[in-house]
Task: inverse folding
């Protein structure tokens, strides 16, 4: 599942990880990790990807914060890689837009 509107992009990964980009804020919702929902500004999100066969091993974490949340590891199944890639690209655009706004 992947849904997109002007300011929001949402993708569900592997059934129980819901990633939402709304403006500059990334929401990660999943029952896999306590407390189950994480909010991160796009400027602070790090995405690390390692191909693993046809799938991708992914780690999401924060950067530049005093109390980072735990690393959130998960696998992106091959069929969901295009939707995940589109989500990450939108998050990068949000980060760049936010950084430009700070300079202005």
Result:
């Amino acid at each position: 599942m992947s849904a997109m509107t002007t300011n929001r992009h949402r993708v569900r990964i592997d059934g129980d990880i819901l990633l939402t980009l709304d403006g500059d804020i990334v929401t990660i919702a999943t029952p896999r990790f306590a407390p189950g929902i994480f909010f991160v500004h796009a400027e602070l999100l790090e995405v690390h990807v390692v191909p693993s066969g046809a799938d991708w091993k992914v780690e999401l974490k924060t950067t530049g914060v005093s109390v980072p949340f735990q690393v959130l590891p998960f696998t992106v199944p091959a069929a969901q890689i295009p939707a995940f890639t589109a989500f990450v690209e939108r998050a990068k655009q949000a980060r760049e837009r936010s950084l430009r706004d700070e300079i202005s």
User: Anything to note?
Assistant: The mean pLDDT is 85. The first strand starts at residue 2 and ends at 4. The helical segments are 81-103. Strands lie at 2-4, 8-13, 17-22, 25-29, 37-41, 45-52, 55-62, 72-76.
